[in-house]
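Co-fold these.
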Amino acid sequence: MPISIIIEKCTGCTLCVKACPFDAIRMMDKKAVIDLQKCTLCGACQDACIFNAVLLEKLETAAPNSCVEDYRGIWVFIEQKNSRVQSVSYELLGKAQELAKKLNTNVSGVLIGNKLEDQLDELIFCGADNIYLVEAPELANFQDEPYTNILVELVKKYKPEIFLCGATNIGRSLISRVAINIKAGLTADCTGLDIDPDKKILLQTRPAFGGNIMATIISPIYRPQMATVRHKVFAPMAADKKRKGKIIKESFDQALYFSRTKLLDIIEEIESTVNLSEADIIVSGGRGMGGPENFKLLEDLAHVLGAAIGSSRAAVDAGWIPYSHQVGQTGRTVGPKIYFACGISGQIQHLVGMQSSKIIVAINKDPEAPIFKVATYGIVGDLFQVIPALTQAFKVAFRK
Amino acid sequence: MHIIVCIKQVPETTEVRINPETNTLIREGVKSIINPFDMYAIEEAIRLKERFGGKVSVLTMGPPQADSALREAISLGADEGYLVCDRAFAGSDTWATSYTLAGAIKKLGEFDLIICGKQASDGDTAQVGPGISTHLNIPQVTYVKKIEEATDKIMRVERMMEEGFEIIQTSLPALLTVVKEINEPRIPSLRGLMRAKSAKITTLTQKELRLDPQQIGLCGSPTQVVKIFTPTPRVGGQILKGEISDITKQLVELIKDEVN
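Predicted complex below.
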């Protein structure tokens, strides 16, 4: 048994029952009993028990992929589309610099694509000490297999201790393949990254169960320690034009660039007001909007604020707005500076997709709507009056 | 066409609440459901079967009670259910889980396509789908919102991206992860429900799969959870009061510094 209760030490205090996030512990005859079907061996009960009655066997782990000490430096996968570096990569370089100071090491960006020379200075100004650059015409656009092959080869050759990547559609798809290939631990969607001061390992904190619990995860013996991070979680560092960096060009055998998937076309269907993940401000509408024609009100407000348009599932399911706008559990997770929830009641599935926003403004006619429980600022009223008035007020404010 | 759908049983998130006194998740009486994204994967597989013939196998890894998720998939039109279940697999992270599922898939014989939901609603990692395709060394297309064309050799799909979508062609066998937009899942028929009740679910344990013991369960998992805690729940702030013109003025003052 990997986990058990030492009956003699258990006092029946129930601290472990309360600590278990998986409801896997019951009291029987005043002793704790662990339901092994529910237990995930997370160790929360062991931490909670003040009588050392929980025995969690740390199983002999498999031999790591190599000697941990051989791995040095922090890497950031630099995501590009149309040969433009994506903002999340700059955010990660900034965070990587902060972590590198605690480890007394340096930061490298890994950039794959074609014709990227004009992007390199900016990456160095924003935190890259080295850039591993792999360019070829067939690498211009992301494809899972060639990009994976290249990253695997680079990791094997240069051995970074930490490897960060944006939690974008490309990043999540790509970096999972890399982690499996090299047998490395990968933690998705981290909202906190830090270095353990004693063990010098990466502490990766992420939400689970839609943000209802947070978990800190480590990858103690496998390298690199890999993590993805969403847009807007960390801030980029201010560009320092005096920073110097090294460009290391790499190329590989053509066979590595072969892909069984072929990109036939890229269709940009979304107008500029929609890139939800990168938006600083999002104006979202829900069932309370009443119909597709009323989203014009939101567009006007969004236009004045330079915001993107979001929506709740209800508005998407009613066919008022395309799915690409949906925020929430079955849509996108966003964390803008300001999130306007207009006519959105605030079901938990919506809240999990936007509750990390810095400021939430809720406009709803029902004062009991759950959205007000999370809103920084609430306006109880008719959105058909409030939104145009707000649009007007911001127009006036910015004219000054 | 043999299509394998990988699903996960998850708690119905609407009902996951925090007990304010003990600060733990309330899971009492919480219903288990099929991960919402997997419902689209099941539906798409059944639609492909209806077009091309063949069979749909549904696979899950979990405790014995995950049997009910497989039966639900069968009630919707899947043909066979496989439950990967063994204490040896407990504590698996996404690396070990995808290794184990890939090992189980190798036992299911030749296949043309694997479909997964884009991510599970409890863990939200989106790592197990790509993990399975990597372990099996087959191509993958993630975030698929439409299958445009399919033959028994190739498939052309639309892949949702942040700014729009891509059209991607892949050779088969391949693995797809699908988003909500791809279809509208059906509800089970009466006949389906009857069939699900009596369907035989095949349990696959470590004895059958004979996976490398160093690569499964806690031991085969590179990541470890070291701490679980409850974040300070977000609390409501202030309700702005007054005439609409006052309210808008207040709000502009409060947030205008954030706008630029």
